[in-house]
Specification:
Layout: H1 22-26, E1 31-34, E2 42-46, E3 52-56, H2 62-69, E4 72-75, E5 80-83, E6 88-91, H3 109-114, H4 123-131, E7 140-143, H5 154-170, E8 176-181, H6 184-194, H7 196-202, E9 203-209, H8 218-227, H9 243-250, H10 254-257, E10 273-280, E11 286-293, H11 298-305, E12 310-313, E13 316-319, H12 324-338, E14 347-353, E15 356-364, E16 383-389, E17 421-427, H13 438-448
Parallel strand pairs: 1-7, 1-8, 8-9, 9-14, 10-15, 14-17
Antiparallel strand pairs: 2-3, 2-6, 4-5, 10-11, 12-13, 15-16
């Protein structure tokens, strides 16, 4: 049943689907939406009491709760990054058939009333699909996951298998159409490589939006490992997770290492980290030189810059250096991604962002203000050089490139995604804005073969986790 309209504009009409259009729904292939990095709500669950609270994303006490509940250390024995809080575990809510976790990332009343677009994630696509006659739990599903972890970790792979199977059965045995965003495309690629038979059984089409197939935005990833990410600038940053706080999580996140620049990809020009550095010939004589580090050479830079990195957690000082165990794991993931093959019969579509300055090279220091010690990089705001893209992922990650000699007979590899696409379309929009861009919504409708039938919108389900 559909819910009633609320007098408050924060809440729209319930988006379960049109109960009077059973015949139309039966003719729709199910859709599964898969989020990217930072695109899933994360809950912290107390192991003893079972109490859950939202730790990503939240506005109130964001930085404090992030440090307390999400700071983690990688366990090389298990392959998982594990929270420092021994009394809690991190969960992704599966309410509303998986859609709750990827719809509005801070579903508090204040956020919905103010309509803060920064936390509206798959919301517009969900609404569009509901208007086209899709029904939650029958032909519309979502898959959020713990984006700190590796894109090929067992829990993520098993969760995706279950979700595909659920959508397949709920729709009466119809194959699933996947729509992924950003790093979600890497997760799908890993699943396709590791479980190709399952992917072939359950998947019909895959629409990929803004995926960093060849390490996405090297500037953003390199900057993340050295200085973290600031999601909100200006005064708003005081109400969100701070750059340094985020940095400590990312250094222990396998997913970040898996998006480091691929040295085997034939970039037009390889991404670099540049450091203006003061070098001393003796105690009195020094000079300033510009050092450059490519994708391979940058490993030694990360090691040196992060050698003294540590966090203070619950009165304990914990070392958080560059993690070579994660790097080794990520190298294995890159091999899996390079070997991924699109099964015969599965249609692939690639949408990528254009027309916006996108960080590529990272530069620390300047000729007049050089870096004295590489450990100072972690406390230095970098400058960037830019290429065309969506402000996060360079368009080069999806565009055609000149093939090397062995590839001339393999036209699929002329493209960064490496797959035989039915279509590749560049859209002038920012990374997350692609999910609400009108042209993208029209392309999705075209490729799914659907059109809007009514004006129902998604009402985000409220669940019991504390804000």
């Amino acid at each position: 049943m559909t819910g009633c309209c609320s007098f408050c504009p924060c809440f729209g009409i319930s988006g379960d689907g049109d109960d009077d259009d059973d015949l139309g729904r039966s003719n729709l292939d199910p859709v599964l939406l898969i989020s990217g990095i930072g695109g899933s709500i994360l809950h912290s669950k107390n192991k003893r009491r079972g109490f859950q609270s939202r730790v990503w994303i939240r506005i109130l006490l964001a930085d404090l709760e992030f440090k307390k509940k999400l700071w983690s250390l990688y366990n090389p024995k298990t392959g998982y990054t594990e929270t420092l809080d021994d009394d809690s575990e991190i969960l992704v809510p599966d309410d509303d058939h998986g859609l709750y976790a990827i719809d509005i990332l801070d579903p508090s009343v204040m956020t919905k009333c103010l309509h803060l677009k920064e936390v509206y994630y798959f919301h517009d696509i969900i609404n569009m699909l509901l208007q086209c006659g899709f029904k939650k739990g029958t032909t519309l599903f979502g898959y959020g996951y713990d984006f700190r972890q590796s894109n090929r970790i067992d829990k993520a792979m098993e969760g995706l298998r279950i979700k595909l199977q659920t959508a397949y059965k709920a729709s009466g045995g119809r194959k699933v159409n996947i729509i992924s965003h950003s790093m979600g495309g890497l997760l799908v690629s890993c699943f396709m490589a590791l479980h190709n038979d399952v992917f072939t059984t359950y998947v019909n089409k895959w629409i990929c939006i803004a995926c960093p197939f060849q390490a996405g935005a090297p500037g953003c990833i390199n900057g993340s490992l050295l200085t973290g990410l600031q999601f909100v600038d200006g005064l708003g940053s005081f109400f969100f997770v701070l750059r340094w706080t985020m940095h400590q999580l990312l250094v222990e996140s396998p997913s970040i290492y898996e998006m480091m620049a691929n040295p085997e990809f034939e970039w037009k020009q390889q991404p670099e980290i540049q450091v203006w550095r003061r070098q001393f010939k003796d105690k009195k004589t020094s000079s300033v030189v510009l050092e450059t580090y490519g994708p391979t050479e940058s490993i030694s830079l990360f090691e040196e810059a992060l050698r003294d990195n540590e966090v203070n957690y619950d009165g304990r000082k914990i070392a958080v250096p560059f993690n070579f165990s994660i790097l080794q794991w990520a190298t294995g993931t890159r091999q899996i991604l390079n070997n991924a093959q699109l099964p015969t019969g599965v249609s692939f579509y690639n949408i990528y962002g254009t027309s916006f300055d996108t960080p590529f090279d990272v530069c620390y220091g300047s000729e007049t203000s050089p870096i004295k010690d590489l450990s100072d990089l972690c406390h230095t705001i970098p400058e960037y050089s830019y290429v065309d893209g969506d402000e996060t992922v360079p368009a080069e990650s999806a565009k055609k490139r000149k093939p090397s000699f062995p590839e001339k007979k393999l036209r699929l590899l002329y493209f960064a995604d490496g797959f035989a696409a039915k279509a590749r379309v560049g859209v002038g929009a920012r990374h997350r804005d692609l999910l609400r861009d009108k042209k993208v919504l029209r392309l999705i409708q075209k490729w799914l073969g659907v059109s809007p039938k009514h004006s129902k919108t998604s009402r985000v389900t409220n669940i019991s986790a504390a804000d």
